[in-house]
């Protein structure tokens, strides 16, 4: 079933340079050959997307929802082939990928439900006031509509949930934007299978071909060509900071600049407040290592920085974490490149004069395996060397010992923008947290207590975003229903005849969506 | 009462280079001298804004609303001095400025009312599900919060409604962002009076000094320093395209890039559909000239382009417009620079080989007066020379004669992004408009029928924004309640103890704001 094809709309094509997937756990290349998409295919896919836009963006919510639900069904119908291939291409365990598949189809279904509720249209109506003095008011009606075709970059670390049919694709399609995916070269077979499922759903729902195209390939030029294409109106990306920044540069240099919603990097500070540390240092150390090593440390929300007050309780935490780390088995990383990069990051910490090695896994592991590692330093050392705040993608973390809560606050103020900030507290830490919370809020998109950042619930309230450089646009989220807002824009209609208005703005409200009339909610 | 001061928070300061306002209608400079803000003042104002942020952004909605209402009252309390000074500095008629003052205080009061409704907080709650299988769900609560201090650039063409206390300032303050205004040098006395009113309101409401600062000055360096300041988190701007693009470059080159919401340029196409033109060419010509010459053509929504099918009806429209133009008196423009620029734009059209002069005002007018002028060309000429699509800021417009509705559609597809698109139609034009409407919607933020674009109602449904380059961010509006969204970001709280949550997220909902719980609207 895996052919190595490029999908330009409904056209399954074989041309261009060839590349192969690799099993990172063994280092072996996997058949078959995959075709890298060409510049011509980029241009045709984007043109098809543009042609599909008027029909797709104007669909009634239940019709677009049905497409999303069909896409979810088709992904499930891929069956075990998808799990086996994604396991082979990612080195991640089967149970994780089964869970990730559930999350992926769950996202599609969540957006289908969200579409049907209709609030995403943001309908606001100010009826005409012909007798207003001194000037009459026109009839003004506004609703949000899709921005246009969207380019989505599949991420390496979630080959299903943040890739071909991941959150960016799901929210873009939900908004009514045709999507052109640049497939990640680390999981080309997985990508093709999912792309095939989406293609099947497009055809089954009778939608225009250009609603979805899939352009796999290993080159940066492919991605740059996609972001440069004049038909593309927005970009969704999850990946490295250099990658995100490069796409931002391409997007802002276009004759018509477009927004890039890039989720790029985060070290996700964890604050162990004094009461919590005193009460449960041992348990915290063990649980922390569980979060740190999850998925070989390759979560965007991996806890890469721990802040605590120096002292006996912190020593206990470190001892507990070191012990847990010693028994944590090294696990394969997603690619040889990521593994090399992790090795470089750890070597930098090992060599840093102000950094102490706290512990590491007793084993070094096999091919492309990351050896979990923990380090510590003082707040003064951290504050005097910005390089210590750089993300080390993988299961390594740095514990920073602070002299006081004031120094901890200064540490927070010195941090870059983050996806998450975590606090462990007991009741006697509440006043300290009350002081720190406003500072944390300016740094992170999600603040959590007495848990670990490495679970990102897909729901309405979730924010998976944060101030730059955690994301390019700190006013957005890439997970949860709010993610659809990235791909919508408002349009106002003034005195347009009722029968020419988009359905949600017509007097009869044929889509039966919630509306605001002169600022107050009404369904009719 | 006008002292020429800079306001760094509550500190009224006199230093720096001096400059003066000019009465454009006479060319005379106006006393007193005004101090241009210095780099040191920029830095101090932004630091104060940052310090004010935690308190100001956390105010309960009624408290921030009371401040906006007080600001409106203080502007009204300036009395006739404000109207006299703004008339002298802008060359605009008294009635216009009285109306603009009403709009300015109306905007502040509209945001006060909008704040109290609470929907702008976008509260979403997904309660904990401790027994969910296979994994429990944490308690997740999200609300929007201010992004941080905002820099606002006063516009020349609306010395009140788009300036010191204009829509950007009102929406920024409403969101909870301290605002640092860069005052426009074309109306320094007007700016100072309004700044003084805002300062009075800040003090009267017991708010931190840094909630509002006012930095007037003529130099581009001042604006660049403001946008570069690390405390500034977003920018609001209304002005020229070169000005907006320059600020976008500064903002994106920062170590931490920030969004610029710039409203930059638009030629606001007007489509005269065949039925409408046949039925009322004469009346349309006359009414068109009324819109074209309003405020000396210095509205962002000025109709600078007219599209119609060639033929007898269009000839009648042109004759009617030419006649109305002949009697339209030249009126002073806002500054000598704007007048010079208008002269250059008109000269380019006069000299263009494919452009025909249709008519102009019989008089040339006095100092800095713009002589209204109308031109025509064919669609082929327009499509072959992109320069004909450039905005000529002032009372000049270009009528493009199309051979067919298909050619008109091609004209629309070739246009840059616009603030508005206007259509004149009769019943027999409806099928033509149904074809054109999706194309218009991709080009403009507001589409209006059988009216003129030069009235921008301040209300919920208004969109005063549009695809680039009409604005830098085509997903936003600078007029209407939706403008507040530019200055908000979502933050999610996970398992945070109830007493530490922001009030709108607490179980008891002490602010009594509308909330969504598991996707459904609830007030409790």
TrEMBL record, chains A, B:
Residue ranges annotated for the Aldehyde dehydrogenase domain, each copy included: 14-458
Keyword Cell membrane listed? The answer is no
* UniProt KW Oxidoreductase keyword: yes
Region Disordered, annotated ranges: 503-524
Q: Which InterPro entries match?
A: Ald_DH/histidinol_DH, Ald_DH_C, Ald_DH_N, Aldehyde_DH_dom, Aldehyde_DH_Superfamily, ALDH_KGSADH
- Provide the GO MF annotations for this entry: oxidoreductase activity, acting on the aldehyde or oxo group of donors, NAD or NADP as acceptor
Entry-linked Gene3D superfamilies: Aldehyde Dehydrogenase, Chain A, domain 1, Aldehyde Dehydrogenase, Chain A, domain 2
- Which UniProt key words apply to this protein? Oxidoreductase
Give residue spans, biased composition: Basic and acidic residues. Answer: 515-524
- The entry's protein name is Aldehyde dehydrogenase (NADP(+))
Give the species this sequence originates from.
Pacificimonas flava
């Amino acid at each position: 079933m895996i052919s190595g094809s490029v999908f330009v709309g409904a056209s399954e094509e074989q041309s261009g340079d060839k590349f192969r997937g690799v099993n990172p756990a063994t280092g072996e290349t996997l058949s078959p050959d995959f075709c890298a998409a060409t510049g011509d295919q980029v241009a045709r896919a984007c043109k098809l997307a543009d042609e599909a836009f008027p029909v797709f963006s104007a669909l009634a919510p239940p019709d677009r929802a049905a497409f999303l639900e069909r896409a979810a069904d088709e992904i499930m119908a891929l069956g075990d082939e998808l799990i086996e291939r994604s396991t082979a291409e990612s080195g991640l365990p089967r149970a994780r990928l089964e869970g990730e598949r559930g999350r992926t189809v769950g996202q599609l279904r969540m957006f289908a439900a969200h579409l049907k509720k209709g609030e995403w249209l943001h309908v606001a109506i100010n009826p005409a006031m012909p007798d207003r003095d001194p000037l009459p008011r026109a009839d003004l009606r506004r609703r949000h509509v899709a921005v246009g075709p969207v380019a989505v970059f599949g991420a390496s670390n979630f080959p299903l949930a943040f890739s071909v049919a991941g959150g960016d694709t799901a929210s873009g399609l939900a908004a009514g934007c045709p999507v052109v995916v640049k497939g990640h070269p680390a999981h080309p077979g997985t990508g093709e299978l999912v792309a095939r499922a989406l293609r099947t759903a497009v055809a089954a729902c009778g939608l225009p071909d250009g609603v979805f195209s899939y352009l796999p390939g290993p080159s940066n030029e492919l991605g740059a060509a996609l972001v440069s294409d004049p038909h593309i109106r927005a970009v969704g990306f999850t990946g490295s900071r250099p990658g995100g920044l490069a796409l931002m540069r391409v997007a802002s240099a276009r004759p018509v600049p477009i927004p890039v919603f890039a989720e790029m990097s985060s070290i996700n500070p964890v604050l162990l407040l004094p009461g919590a540390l005193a009460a449960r240092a041992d348990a915290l150390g063990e649980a922390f290592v569980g979060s740190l090593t999850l998925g070989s440390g390759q979560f965007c929300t991996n806890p890469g920085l721990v802040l605590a007050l120096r002292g006996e309780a912190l020593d206990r935490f470190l001892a507990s974490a070191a012990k847990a780390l010693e028994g944590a088995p090294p696990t394969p990383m997603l690619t040889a490149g990521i593994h090399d990069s992790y090795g470089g990051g750890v070597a930098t910490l090992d060599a840093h004069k102000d950094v102490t090695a706290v512990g590491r896994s007793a084993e070094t592991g096999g091919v492309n395996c990351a050896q979990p590692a923990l380090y510590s330093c003082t707040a003064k050392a951290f504050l005097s060397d910005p390089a210590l705040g750089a993300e080390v993608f993988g299961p390594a973390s740095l514990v920073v010992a602070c002299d006081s809560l004031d120094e901890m606050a200064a540490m927070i103020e010195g941090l870059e923008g983050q996806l998450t900030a975590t606090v462990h507290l007991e009741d006697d830490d509440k006043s300290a947290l009350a002081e720190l919370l406003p500072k944390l809020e300016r740094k992170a998109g999600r603040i959590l207590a007495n848990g670990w950042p490495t679970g990102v619930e897909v729901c309405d309230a979730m924010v998976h975003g944060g101030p730059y450089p955690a994301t390019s646009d700190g006013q957005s989220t890439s997970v949860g229903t709010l993610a659809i807002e990235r791909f919508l824009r408002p349009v106002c209609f003034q005195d347009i005849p009722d029968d020419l208005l988009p359905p949600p703005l017509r007097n009869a409200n044929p889509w039966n969506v919630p509306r605001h009339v002169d600022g107050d909610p009404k369904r009719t």
